[in-house]
């Protein structure tokens, strides 16, 4: 197996006023919180969004591991729907002392390039900033952060920066060059 160099960039907002919202796309695009923890639905979103960009870290999670993660207080999944069809999602995960990570964010390939991503990221970041309002006991959000890498889409970094996220760390590491898993085996050519 060969290795590839992967650059990971970490970005942050340190105040709600850092958020620079994108305009809503035209058409019937809605963003709805998936309030019932559903390992099946979350795994579908994860595999469908990340299948062509080598998201593999959660593919081996058991149903119980998915449930455990999704039932943690403050973990939220916000789903963008285009005319009733899931188009992408943003997953928020609270940390300590008011830090919220946008742990996963992206669009299913068929919905990319339609101005949905900027809108979904804006909405997700805003929900990260008001997370404690929905979860009594969580600290008020003081910082929202995320990471992206050189395996992500070509427009990811630009989208994050246009939404007001600022770079605070860069790392380059060697990773195994794994085959693109697709949303199900064989969905994408290797």
TrEMBL record:
Domain N-acetyltransferase: 29-190
Superkingdom, natural source: Bacteria
Molecular functions (GO terms): acyltransferase activity, transferring groups other than amino-acyl groups
InterPro entries listed in its UniProt record: Acyl_CoA_acyltransferase, GNAT_dom
Membrane-spanning ranges: none
Keywords tagged on the record: Transferase
Name of this chain's protein: Putative acetyltransferase
């Amino acid at each position: 197996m060969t290795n590839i160099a992967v650059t990971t960039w970490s970005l942050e907002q340190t105040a709600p006023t850092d958020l620079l919202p994108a305009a809503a796309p035209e058409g019937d695009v809605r963003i709805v919180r998936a309030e019932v923890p559903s390992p099946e639905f979350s795994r579908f979103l994860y595999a469908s969004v990340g299948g062509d960009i080598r998201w593999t870290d959660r593919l081996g999670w058991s149903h119980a591991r998915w449930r455990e993660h999704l039932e943690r207080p403050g973990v939220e999944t916000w789903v963008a729907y285009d005319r009733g069809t899931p188009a992408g999602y943003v997953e928020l995960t609270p940390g300590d002392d008011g830090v919220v990570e946008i742990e996963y964010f992206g669009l299913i390939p068929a919905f990319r390039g339609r101005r949905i991503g900027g809108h979904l990221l804006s909405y997700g970041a805003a929900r990260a900033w008001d997370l404690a309002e929905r979860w009594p006991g969580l600290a008020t959000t003081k910082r929202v952060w995320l990471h992206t890498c050189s395996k992500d889409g070509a427009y990811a970094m630009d989208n994050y920066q246009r939404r007001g996220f600022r770079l605070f760390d860069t790392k380059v590491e060697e990773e195994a060059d794994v085959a693109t898993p697709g949303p199900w085996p064989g969905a994408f050519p290797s």
